[in-house]
Amino acid sequence: MLRSIPILLALSSALFPSLALAYNVEFTAPDPNQKLNLSAPSIKIAWTIDPIAPEADSNEVDIWLHTAVSGGSTFDYNLEENYTSSTRLTNEYDWDPKGVHDALLASGQGGVVLPAGKESYFELRFHDMNDARGSGLKSEKYAVEGYPKIGAANRALAAGWGTAVIAAAGSVVVGLVLI
Fold first, then answer.
1. Beta-carbon neighbour count of residue 88 at 10 Å?
2. 146: phi > 0 → left, psi -120 to 50 → alpha, else beta; which?
3. Three-state DSSP class for 104?
């Protein structure tokens, strides 16, 4: 019986790799149930790392924000590059969202439109010093607030169609009266 235990462990690791990777990196802030306020002076981004996770050995992490924008594309913003922490397993970064807010407004013609739902997320890219490659971790998705163009494209499109329908109906009525 004792000889079969190593064989069972090897088979379970081969058949169920997620069992062998019983470590994690977890975002602890911000709360995904709260909207990201892009007009706030600061937003805390925090995460914990299990000591046996490969990421625990990384010297640096790049912190990114990704958000969907109108037209089906994505806005990707590098919040911090090569971030290091004195306490490697519990990390915290205070982010000033003003740069992202201003970059969104400067994009396109008068700023891009953000969706009203949860379409923004953070990504941590762990790597060693002087290395750009490493493992990545995505947070849960967040809704945003504190930005003037959230969900406005859909409302503008709906209003535009409504105006077009009324104009078309009016021209038909005028055409019938003239006949």
1. 15
2. left
3. helix
The whole-number average pLDDT for the span 83-112 is 88
54/179 Cα distance (integer angstroms): 80
Quick one: tokens of 171? 């021209």
Boundaries of domain holding 41? 23-148
Could you tell me the end-to-end alpha-carbon distance of the chain, in angstroms, rounded to an integer?
98
pLDDT in tens, 40-87: 999 999 999 988 888 888 889 999 999 999 888 999 999 999 999 767
Instruction: Please tell me the total count of domains within the chain.
Output: 1
Instruction: Report the CATH number that the domain containing residue 123 is assigned in CATH.
Output: 2.60.40
Task: Supply the pLDDT for residue 134.
Answer: 75
Question: Which burial class, exposed, middle or buried, applies to 134 when counting CB atoms under 10 A from its CB (0-12, 13-18, 19+)?
Answer: middle
Average pLDDT of the residues in 22-27: 77
Residues near 111 by Cβ (< 8 Å), separated by ≥ 6? 104, 105, 148, 149
Q: Report whether 95 contacts 42 (CB < 8 A).
A: yes
In whole angstroms, give the CA distance from residue 98 to residue 101. 5
